[in-house]
Amino acid sequence: MHFTKMHGLGNDYVYINGFEEHLEDPAAMARIISDRHFGIGADGLILILPSAQADFRMRMFNADGSEAQMCGNGIRCLAKYVYDHRLTRKTTLQVETLAGVLELQLVPWGDVIDKVCVRMGEPRLQRLQIPMQGPAGQVINEPLQVEGKPFEITAVSMGNPHCVVFVDDPQTFEVEYWGPRFEHHPAFPEGVNTEFVGVLDDHTFRMRVWERGSGETLACGTGASAAAVACHLTGRTGRRVTAHLRGGTLELEWRQTDNQVYMTGPAVEVFSGQWHSMECGHHD
Predict the structure, then answer these.
(1) 148 and 191: one domain?
(2) How far apart are CA 199 and CA 207, in angstroms?
(3) Which of 81, 112, 120, 264 is the most exposed place for a label (fewest CB within 10 A)?
């Protein structure tokens, strides 16, 4: 089976061209190939597939095999893959995900794609849309007890659930300890991605992210989008912001004109290869 390793700001995935390859059990394959000691090593697996309603369809599996609705860094890399590998020559793409059909603007540099702007969709702010336990309404600066410690959280869905926590310094915050405790908190019936955010000024923030099913990653596009929305909702920033993540920088804008979040960032192809294991029922 042919694969390609790609990353967006260090948030890395193994890509399978579903026009040429078939996986019987992508969840099991995601667990095997994501292992950084015995597999290829990645935050998960992404399948590039035909779509009846868009140019392409993306299925994304976390390192633990769970299927996620969307991945902002992952979808940027998908756009680079389909253009660079000549599956399309369009620079405006529609991509079907479990979070809906998203529009992408590709920025070529010579004959390959350098950056991609993703229209991430409208943030969903009602508690039931996250989903999160509790009374109806938005979750903005709401207290939440985690192992007896009080936090203030803002909850946003970008097609997948996010819990944004503002901290003094994300770089020294104990993400490895608190991340899984937020992820599995009973307030979030489907688990949650958690962003630990420090605001630098009214248009810049720094963040670290704990992704459900993968642990801490170097970047998360939907997480950065959710954090940008939360920063504005809580009066900390304007609608256009720069997000500094451990893997690099994203530009984000929550436009008032259409209520959509736009995310712009790089996409990089690392290497390609052949997976020769006969596990997981793949067919070459």
Answers:
(1) yes
(2) 9
(3) 112
Please say if the pLDDT value at position 279 is more than 60. Answer: no
Residue 73: name the closest of 225, 240, 203 by CA. 225
By annotation, the residues acting in catalysis are 71, 220
273: left (phi over 0), alpha (psi -120 to 50) or beta: beta
> What does the alpha-carbon distance between residue 126 and residue 169 come to, in Å, rounded to a whole number?
28
Say how many domains are in the chain: 2
70 and 147 housed in the same domain: no
Asked if residue 105 and residue 9 are part of one domain, the reply reads yes
- Its pTM stands at 0.88
Q: What are the two backbone dihedrals, phi and then psi, of residue 58, each rounded to the nearest 5 degrees?
A: -115, 130
Residue 55 belongs to domain with CATH number: 3.10.310.10
Name the average pLDDT for the chain.
95
Distances (CA, A) of 20 to 47, 61, 64, 283: 11, 19, 25, 10
Residue labelled with tokens 């909702």: 233
